[in-house]
Please model this.
Amino acid sequence: MAELLTTRKENYSQWYNELVIKANLAENSVVRGCMVIKPYGYALWENMRDVLDKMFKQTGHQNAYFPLFIPKSYLSREASHVEGFAKECAVVTHYRLKQSPDNEGVIVDPDSKLEEELIVRPTSETIIWSTYKNWIQSYRDLPILINQWANVVRWEMRTRLFLRTAEFLWQEGHTAHQTKEEAIEETEKIIHLYADFVENYMAVPVMVGLKTASERFAGAVETYCIEALMQDGKSLQAGTSHFLGQNFAKAFDVQFLNKENKLEYVWATSWGVSTRLIGALIMTHSDDKGLVLPPKIAPLQVVIIPIYRNEEQEAKVSEVANAIVKELQQKNISVKYDNRDEYRSGWKFNEYEMQGVPVRITVGARDLEKNQVEVFRRDTMDKKLATPDVVVDEIVDLLEDIQQNIFNKALAFREKNTCVVDTWEEFKDVIENKGGFVSAHWDGTAETEEAIKEATKATIRCIPLNNPQEEGKCIFSGKPSKERVLFAKSY
RNA sequence: CGGGAUGUAGCGCAGCUUGGUAGCGUGCUUCGUUCGGGACGAAGAGGUCGCAAGUUCGAAUCUUGUCAUCCCGACCA
Model:
């Protein structure tokens, strides 16, 4: 019993850290702040990526790849963009190593200094817009709808597996349009695509909204976001979609001739989700026994575990198990028959529960005498008996049910932890003691936002889309306000 | 960059006060018995004690320096 997790109640962040390691998702690397994504964690990312990639293509986007390195001068073209990223950039200054004079390893060759230093991309707007400039002459060249799957580097002070690492994997979409309206439409289309993916595949309910000016992406005119509430009452930004206006077009001089033969700057968007989504997934569904994964993206949907005493029993059990495996595979359900002899069944149960496999089937010699197998669902930890000939049909339904159930559970949690508050005292109390989302009036100024953050550590997570308009008074300043915004402490 | 802590077997740790053959748990290897919720026994493999200098007959242990990592703050998807 040495492998138990710290419970969420004991120490939520320790629980998270241990879970990532023990569920075999990822581990820290020798390079500070960087992670090794292990096969099980990477399989999860691949499943997420595959679904998203299909969604992007269905909405008319194409994949491309732009360089990892960006000339330093590019980053300084757009003023607020530089300001946003300058403090966390890795810089390449040399291109060669040589044997050290004392023959103890290698040193940077001082003669290999680069004429212009290169920045390891923290995001690709600048390199992409400098390229788009050459691709765009006429309105006939628009829109450009491109996505890239890539790694980026942001030199973070404090890192945590998946939630914030110095290097992470993501996708970044970069689109160019003729009109402001079309670009805004694209920005909104993508944020809804993200919400659709995160809710319907990852089973994580999200709030869709707009960022305030201070939380906005550096260089954006408007930032749309999806925010998810974690089990510790903190909010996590799970994806962003930016309307960039003509900021980058102007910075990189990207103009096109419109139908009236007049030069215009193009309108831009960019949008992304990262491996951080895996952090959101873990913290939304998992429990003190380990990971809980939504069937639609789980690397392994069903595991079958045999129980037997001797070879004769093993043969019988395996025959039934293998038949179930085959039938599940025919229905495109991923399944593993774990007949390793070196571990006992109880050990395997705990292992797969830690890894969040949605369904487990136990086939025991004693079961077979009664023509039954045991079906276990990870989300509720319930066990049921089924006859081998119908178990596969039941599992198809069960996987659906688990997907739905964990979403409903997460949604109920969010609703329970979203408070409408009208006084400053109550606001402080809820943020301090209960956590979760707090819906409150705000006077719309950055000063008030900053003062609230200073006092409570809570920030405005978003201004929900289609927000009901109502007269009210700012929670902090008492000034008039016409809508509520969502506050929370955040990751 | 401030404040605190830690470096000893793959992992988790003890040993250091009072210097004298480097230990425990777990994991690993082999064999046997087990097998319905993290089995048990036996036999094994595995360590420049972070690094460097110093004190000493002798340093994991004492001294000095140095490097690294982790935690708490300022910055962030």
Q: What stands out?
A: The two ends of chain A are 32 Å apart (CA to CA). The mean pLDDT of chain A is 94.
